[in-house]
Task: structure prediction
Amino acid sequence: MKRIATVIIVLMLGNGIGVSIYSHNENTYPLKSSEFVKSIVYILPYEKCSDYWTKTYGDRIYYYVYENISEDREAIEKDFSIIATIYNNVILIIPAEDTQLYFKNMATMNEIARENGLQIIYAIFPGEKYGDEDTYLENGSKMHNLVIQDMQYLASMNTTYKIAIWYGWTYRCNAVDIINFYRSLPNEIKEKYAVWLDEEYAERVRGVYLYNLPYDVLFITEAYDKEEIASYSCLYYNQMLVTGYEGASSLEEWRYNIENMLSACRCGNIGIWMFYDIGDGAGEEYAAFINGSLSDFNFTAEIKFQKGFSYGAWWNSTFLSEESDASLENLKDTGTEWVSLVTTWYQDDEHSTQIMPDKDSTPSDESIMHAIETIHSLGMKVMLKPHVDLYNDEWRGEIQFDDDEEWNEWFDSYKNFICHYARLAEQHGVEQFCVGCELVKTTAREEWFDIIKDVRNNFSGALTYAADWSNYQNVTFWQALDFIGIDAYFELTDKNNPTLEEIMEAWKKWKPDIEQMHNLTGKPIVFTEIGYRSIDGCNMQPWNWRRQGKIDLQEQADCYEAAFRMFYNEPWFYGFYWWMWEPDPSIGGADDDNYTPYKKPAENVLKAYYKNASIYVRIVKPRDGYMYLFDREIMPASETIILGKITVEANASANAEKVEFYIDDELKYVDAAIPYSWTWNEFAFGKHEVKVVAYGMDGNIAEDEIDVMIFNI
Result:
């Protein structure tokens, strides 16, 4: 079975072109199944290079134009057969040309690739055939038409995967040029377009998404020292990093330097040059390296599934209290393994540039350190998640400014705020850190890259950003982080009392886009917040903490169950942080309408998934304290009253095999398929007990019962 990777056929080395893969590094992030993949340069074997610079860097790119590749077909096929045992794709570095020999050579390479089951990514260097290199950016110019002609020809071949255009040296290179060139492309080749950026241009166009360039356009960037790799390997949604090392005098020296540089990389798509022995010039060590002699090494923090819960306080000493310690013990009992510890600083309004702690409302550093210590002592891990709130009661997502001077002042203040907590987190062994939360109108700003860099200088663990559910697709800096965080308050149905099935169905309009964000970035998805109040209609606007409604414990539980069923087992999904567990253990229970599931049916749902051993079942119809007339819910009542027949309905956890229905301990029906239900339509008069029993695949049993007054004659 092939590993998913790419090898570049490079005809141009030196300060520019290397080898790359185009594949998500599943071991790093880790998507649970695949090993780390890597690729290495292939030199077209038309002669040995006694003059390294001239032959390799100067001539070989033009071999495709001026020489007949068919004469070397046997040697190329041999190399491709080796490549095909390991990789899926190759990359050809080529000039823009229109000679018959050029097109014949491209057809030959396409044929060889097809015979070996490989795809090709072409990288075109616009030359000076019809004017300066930059003129290809001028719509309608001879160079523009030449490049488009080449792209159309290459796109027509059945092994073509991507066609990259190179930007570097004296070429114009800015976001507007790139987006205008993209828009000039015929529709049939837009999906093939990629951008190759010389090392000096790597970060020059990172604002390109503001001009609506699709996120799936591939960016191939170059960097040739460790510091550059750390900075330039995480700039674009769909990115490939190219690097290399020329100066080695031995294979061991080359390998050491390559691995040392790549240890700073935060991109899963990696390219490296082969060792090239200047002494004999033949590059005969190529076969050994292409078969994987480099060590396996991780580029980023490893992310594992997170069974999490949010835990916050809005008083300076709350986390120091005995009540808070007891509440954390209760949280541990739910099976929670990660705690998102929330602390808050404040600014006056959405246009204020200064962020400050509040002497009363901001948890003291002492209390945060105590909470971290307590959480760790209970065997749980910590994600520290600092928030910014506004004194005028507006939402933090409204923070924005009219000019760069104000933006700079705000980001300077934000850097002071966030790095304070990054240092505290590092000093006290915090495992993860969230660099920001729901700052919707700031996410297009390039200052975020500097914020993230400064946080990494102060904190060695994994980083994320908690994007609002309405904004996660517009965050421009996901590649600088270790995983994608979404505060998942997605609006679901338009019903006050939806069924579990209706809630699950409503998730289907949001889920594909969430998965697509993973596919575009290669990053794991974590819901850094998700939660529902225990009120009627909580699914409609989960974010609305001011919403009024009567207590509905079942809808909250159903929302928990629906989210678990929709996401828990997805290979790209890595965890929940439910909002929220209160530091006061007296908050919760049947009379509470807040977000906490404590002492509510939703807690049983949580335990069923987080503890991986429990099973739960709950009667959802008839409901306690309602009147039913011929199977229809009519009105609230002092007790459950049924006139005529009734359909008894039950919800059970996903690990349930069957549900049994009992009346006064007499088995009436067994249902082994969702939705679990049974119609009770027999003579009955007076008070009776309705009971359901669920049997789990692990042998566990759960039951629920309700007393009803029924009159069915």
User: Anything to note?
Assistant: The chain has 17 helices and 26 strands. The CA atoms of residues 492 and 509 lie 9 Å apart. Confidence is low (pLDDT under 50) at residues 1-40, 45-58, 275-300.
